[in-house]
Amino acid sequence: MGWGGSPGGGMLTQIKLHDFRCFETLEVEIAPGVQFFTGDNAQGKTSILEAACVLLRLASPRSPTLTPLIRQEARGFALQGYWGSRQLQFYHSAERRKLVLDGVEQSGTAEYLRAARLVYFSNTDVELVRGPADGRRRFLDFLGSQIEPLYRSSLRAYERALRSRNRLLKAVPVRWREVEAYDTPLLDAGRLLTDLRRSLVAELVPWAASAQAAIRTEAATGGPEALSLQYQPGAGEDFAARLRESREEEARLRQTRVGPHRDDLSLCLGGQPVGVYGSEGQQRTTALALKLAQARLLEAVWKQPPLLLLDDIFGELDVTRRNALLNALPTNAQQLITTTHLDWLRDAPSGPIWRLAGRRLEGTI
Amino acid sequence: MRRIDYPEPLQRLVAQLKRMPGIGPRSAERIALWLVGTGRQEASRGREIAETMLENAAKVRPCDRCGFFTIATPCEICRDESRADGPLCVVEQATDIIPLERTGVFKGRYHALGGRLAPLDHVGPEDLTIDRLLERVKEEGATEIILALGADVEGEATAQYLAGLLREFPELNVTRIAQGLPAGGGLESADELTLSRAMTGRVLLSK
Q1: Percent of chain B scored above 90 by pLDDT?
Q2: Domain closes at, from A264, A286, A303
Q3: Statement to judge: residues A10 and A105 lie in one domain
Q4: Helices (DSSP H) in B67-145: which residue ranges?
Q5: How many CA atoms lie within 13 A of B32 on its CB side?
Q6: Residue A5 — very low, low, confident or very high, per pLDDT cuts 50/70/90?
Q7: What fold characterizes domain B8-59?
C-alpha cells in the first residue's frame, strides 16, 4: 500500500493566511523541530494550526465544510505556504476554489495532496473513542487519503453514488429500477473502499498497540492490557447480498442501510470496548494512541515523519503522561504546539515560542 | 457632472453578447465595439453575422431519430445506407458522436440520450430519449447496443439502467466500451483509478 519515498523535503517553512477565520493577514515563518504558540483564549492559536491543515490537506479538523472558515465580511480565504521546496496556494470561496502547486494551477487535487502529510492532535480527540462512528470513519479517511491515492477517489465515488441512491429512495413512489441502476457504482466503489479501510486498519494495529503501551501509566489503565483495533465493515462480508436483503428496510426508511457509510472501528482493551467500559484516563490514552499510531504509520510509509499539529493537548496532562507522550512522538518530527498556560513549558523540548495577542504574533523567546 | 457610459443600444448589445458561452464582460465589450465600428464596412459585417445567425441557427436541430445535429430528419448518419444496421452506439450527448466518427472505427449508427441519469441534478429517465431508443431497437433490428457512456458514477448507473431495460430483447448483445490506459502513454501518466480499471479489464495474450 502507498507511494513510499518522498517528493521534496518534508517540512513546513512558511504559511500565510488571508481572510482566514479571525485573521485579515498573518504570516508565520516556521522553524524545523518544535515550536509553541501561546496566548489567551480566542486569539487565534488554533486557527494557525487549522490553516496549516487546510493548506496541506484541503480539510479542516474542526469543520466538515470550508466556507465557515472565511473571515466575516470577506468573499473567500487564501492560504499560501512552502512545504520544503514546494509552494502551495489554496483559495476558497463559496463559488470558487483554486489550487496552485509550484505556480501551476491544478485541475484536480491528486498532485497537490501528494505534497505533504500531517497528523492533527486536538483536545477533543477523546470523542474518537466515546463519540459516534462517523468520527472514527473520518479518522480513517484522513489517514487513508495520505497513504493511498485510490482512497480519496473511491471515497468520493462512493459518497456520490450513495447520495444519488438516497435521493432516489426519497422519491414517491420509489422507482426501483433507477435505484438498482445505482447499485453497481455503489457496490464497486463500496467494495474498493471496504478493502482499503480493512488493510489500513490492519497496518494500524501494531502501531496503535505499541503507542498505547508507550504512553499509558499504570494508574490510568489499571492493568497491562493491549489495545486492539477491529474494522467492522458496514457492508458485511458480502456487500451485494446484504444490499439485496436490505430492500424492505430501505423501502421503509427511504435510505441506503448497508455499506461503508456504516463502517466502524472497534477499540478494545482486554476485550472490552474502551468507549463504554474504559476509565476517563484509558479513553484519553486510547485517543492519543490512535493519533500516535497515525503518525508512526505515516512515518513508516513515507520514510519521514509527518508534520504534527498539537492543539492544546499538553496542558491538561500530568507530568508523567506528558513526558510519556513527548517521548512517544516520532523524533525529528516538526511540531506546532498551541498552549494557553506556560507553566509546563519548563520541562518541554526547547524551541521558538510565539505569543499571539491582538491578532498579531510577537517575537520568539 | 454627469458620468457618461456607452449609449443604450451599445449597452444592450454588450448585454446580449455576454449571454454567449465563453464570452465575459470584457470580450462582449470588444465584440460590440467591433460590430459598431465607424465606417460602412463595419456596419456590413454586423449585418452579415446577424443574417448568418438568423438564417442558420434555426435550421439546425436534433435528428428526431438519433439526436445528432441535422437540417432534416432523418439525419445524414441515419440516412446512410452504407452503415451497418446491427450495432447501435449509445452516447450521452450528440457532441460525443463527433469524436467517435473521427476514429472511423465504428460503422454503425448512433443514439444520443441527451444526458445521463443524475438524481443529484434532478435528471431522470423521462428527461432522456430512452423510449425512442427502445423503439429503435425494435424497428431497426439492432443486434448489438454499444454503451459509450462516461466512466463516472452517473455514466455507470445509466449504463446499468439501460442494460436492465434491454434485457427484454433476448437476442440483443449489450456491451460497454472498455476503460483503461490512454494510447501512447506510459503507466506513470495514468491516474490510480484508471490504472486499477485497466488492470481489472486486462486482456489475455497467451496461455
Answers
A1: 69
A2: A303
A3: yes
A4: 76-79, 97-103, 130-140
A5: 22
A6: very low
A7: Helicase, Ruva Protein; domain 3 (1.10.8)
Task: Band the pLDDT of B172: cuts 50, 70, 90.
Answer: very high
DSSP designation for A358: T
Domain encompassing residue A52: 1-117+306-365
Number of domains, chain A = 2
pLDDT recorded at residue A214: 87
Chain A partners within 8 Å of B192 (Cβ) = 110, 149-150, 153
CB distance A163–B120 less than 8 Å? yes
Residue % of chain A over a pLDDT of 90: 70
Predicted ipTM?
A: 0.83
What angle in degrees, to the nearest 10, is found between the helix axes of A183-215 and A133-147?
90
For A208-270, give the DSSP string.
HHHHHHHH--HHHHSS-PPEEEEEE-TT-S-HHHHHHHTHHHHHHH-S--SSGGG-EEEEEET
pLDDT at A281: 85
pLDDT of A225 above 80 = no
* Secondary structure of A324-349 in HEC code, one letter for each residue: HHHHHCCCCCCEEEEECCCHHHHHCC
Same domain, A38 and A105: yes
Shortest distance between the Cα of B102 and any Cα of chain A, in A, equals 27
Same domain? For A190 and A239 the reply is yes
CATH of B69-206, one of 3.40.630.30, 3.40.1360.10, 3.30.450.40, 3.30.465.10: 3.40.1360.10
At A152, is the secondary structure helix, strand, or coil? helix
Q: How far is B32 from chain A (nearest CA, A)?
A: 28
Is some CB atom of chain A closer than 8 A to the CB atom of B118?
yes
Peptide bond into B74 cis (omega under 30): yes
Do A287 and A158 share a structural domain? yes
Domain CATH for A286: 1.20.1050.90
Residues of B in contact with A144 (CB under 8 A): none
Are residues A292 and A321 located together in one domain of the fold? Answer: no
Mean pLDDT across A270-292:
92
* Chain B contact set for A189 (CB, 8 A): 153
B153 and chain A in contact, CB less than 8 A:
yes
Band of pLDDT at residue A235, cut at 50, 70 and 90: very high
Across the interface, do A181 and B157 touch by the CB < 8 Å criterion? yes
Task: Give B155-166 pLDDT, tens digit per residue.
Answer: 999 999 999 999
Q: What's the average model confidence in pLDDT over A250-274?
A: 95
Position A201 scores a pLDDT of: 98
Say how many CB pairs under 8 Å bridge A and B.
63
